[in-house]
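Q: Structure tokens for this one, please.
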Amino acid sequence: MRSRLVPAALLSSALLLSGCGTGLHATTYTKERAPRDFANASLADLEVRNLGIAAPSEGDTLTAGQTAVLTGSVVNRGDKDDTLVGIESTAAGASSLYLDGKAVSEVTVPAGGDASTWSALLTGLRNDVRVGSYVEVTLVFRSAGRLEGVKVPVRNQPEQDPYKSAE
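A: Here is the predicted structure, written as tokens:
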């Protein structure tokens, strides 16, 4: 009799525990969009990695007319330098490149290296863009050409640690 009770108890506890983590506070419901949600892309010897659009400063939506900040990295596996000369997107009225916080017309991607700390501003968003959604962009390189249809996730704000005191 006891040999039948142990498997029955295990089965019933497994069924009860399988319901844990569901509902509005489940981890999968509140999952933060992170750079790992970007499907890395390649063009010639270039690898585009970790692209993402910064979360809105407040709420969960960048509204039409606002500016979105795109960041990421480009790695050059080749033996010749290339240059990122632009970012295009139908989601915005204009875009501009920045390197180490300064507006630039291009960003060098050195052979065997990466493009440093670049970003792009997508100004004049044409529609509202929510956290967790994607914005389609095209990266334009001088030598490698155009990497079109790149879907970039809009990231979520990192949650504040309630146990960490403000300094």
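A few notes: The domain at 33-153 is CATH 2.60.40.1890 (Immunoglobulin-like). The first helix runs from residue 2 to 18.
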